[in-house]
Amino acid sequence: MNILNLTAGDLPIFLLAFFRVTGVMIPAPLFGSGVVPTPVKIFTSLLLAVLFLPFVARPISPVDPGLGVYVVAVLGELGVGLLIGFASAMLFAAVQFGGQIIDQELGIMMANILDPLTNEQISIIGQFKLFLATVVYLLIDGHHFLIRAVADSFRAVPIGGFHLTNGAVMHLSDTLPRDLFRVAVQIAAPSLVTLFLITIALAFMARTVPEMNIFVLGFSLRVAVGLVVLAIGIGIFVYGLDPLIRRDQASMGRFLGLLGG
Question: For the whole model, what pTM was predicted?
Answer without folding.
Answer: 0.81
